[in-house]
Amino acid sequence: MGEVLYIILAGLVGLGAGAALAGVLIKNKNQKLEEEAKEKVKSILREAEISAESLKKDKILEAKEKYLKIKADFDEEMSHKKNIIITNENKVKQREQQVSKELEQVKRKEAELDSKKENLNAQLHSVQVKKEELDRITNQRIADLEKIAALTREEAREQLIQMLTEEANTKASSQIKDILDEAKLTATKQAKKIVLDTIQRTATEHAIENCVSVFNIESDDIKGKIIGREGRNIRALEAATGVEIVVDDTPEAIIISGFDPVRREIAKLSLHRLVQDGRIHPARIEEVVAKTEKNIEEEIVEIGERTCIDLGVHGLHPELIRMVGRMRFRSSYGQNLLQHSREVAKLSATMAAEMGLNAKLAKRAGLLHDIGKVWHEEQELPHAILGMELAKRYKENPEVCNAIGAHHDEIEMTSMISPIVQASDAISGSRPGARREIMDSYIKRLKELEELALSFDGVNKCFAMQAGRELRVLVDADNVDDQTAGKLSFDISQKIEKEMQYPGQIKITVIREMRAVNYAR
């Protein structure tokens, strides 16, 4: 037991000595590290001080260099400005010297002018004295002449003026007469030359419109399809288009007769489409005719646009272009209205160019001079006045409007273009083969016949057939019954007898067709 305690105590003593020794070693090591750290700090501080000193010296040198550069630039600029100031001062001194010399010259010139002025005053005084002497002598002579002639000065002057005036009037009248005679002769020759040159330079067609169109077919077998069972197809086509279809022995041809070119064109195009399609029956005929009428309206616009492009007339209102297209399907005394208007436009342009006037304006007026004939609404105005009003409505040039209204002398001409258009219209209409007077009166009578029948209530369409010997009236089946249809036929015949003059007799046929339409849905 005692030995064990001794061993334990010896161990404890050994541990305490080791710990003490370790503590001493650690302390010595810490002191050494601390001294090394201090030495490093001192070394870093010394290096920092050296670096700062070097940086400071560099900055100071850099600042000195900048200062020296700025000072050198400043000195150079100041030297430049000083030189400029010296140069300007020299220029000012030179200018002052020059001004001084000019002032001396001005003073010398003023002295010379004063001397000349004195000389002129002396000369003027001398002239004044001589003038007074001359006036005195002149007055003395006038007084002597008045005593000799027994006339005062004023009376003599009036007699002299009267004599000179009468002599001048006599000579002037003679010269004016000679000039007028020469001008009339020259103007007549020049006008004839312009008209002849214009006619020679204008190529025109001489064909006259007729009332018949020919529809060519490939074989006579198609005629049977066009006629239909018991002629129902022909009747349907005539009722829809208002023309007369003549199917006779003429080989490979069907005659379309009607005074209205638009109706004939619609019938011809409709026949062409029906023959190509092969389905020819009343319902199909009505459908094709309706489509053709719509296409004709589009073609009218296209014709108007093409005509304006061909003639070089630009900027027309769309409605005026449509009227120009309608002229293609109208005639004036058998002369196609569009062809006539194109011809007048070309003649007017050529004449205006020969006379040094505005050829484009004259061509425009010539093209539009007859637009009053194709207005779709009935008017009591003459076609020239109506055309002028339409041109004003669509903002045409005032000279063009005056030329349209004055080409038949309904209004006064206010422009040089107006007589040119009038002369061109006369040239176009009066040339051989251009017109046929009876045709226009014939078409007018047929139009009046149709308008008379259309004035009755319940009438939908009305067509003059057989050159005006038959009038076919289509009525609304809902508003006109069979009994009323018979009475309507009688009333129309009585009104025609009272209001119209015509050769022979006119057959009035009232057609009432009852249709019942429903839809299966």
From TrEMBL:
The keyword Transmembrane helix belongs to this UniProt entry's keyword annotation: yes
Pfam families reported in the protein's UniProt record: HD, KH_1, RNase_Y_N
Single GO molecular function: hydrolase activity
Gene Ontology, cellular component aspect: plasma membrane
Keyword Electron transport: no
Known EC number: 3.1.-.-
Occurrences of domain HD (ranges): 337-430
Coiled coil regions, renumbered to chain: 89-137
The organism's place on the tree of life at top rank: Bacteria
Signal peptide: none
Assigned keywords, A-Z: Cell membrane, Coiled coil, Endonuclease, Hydrolase, Membrane, Nuclease, RNA-binding, Transmembrane, Transmembrane helix
Cross-referenced InterPro entries: HD/PDEase_dom, HD_domain, HDIG_dom, KH_dom, KH_dom_type_1, KH_dom_type_1_sf, Ribonuclease_Y, RNase_Y_N
Family: Belongs to the RNase Y family.
Protein name: Ribonuclease Y
Protein species of origin: Algoriphagus faecimaris
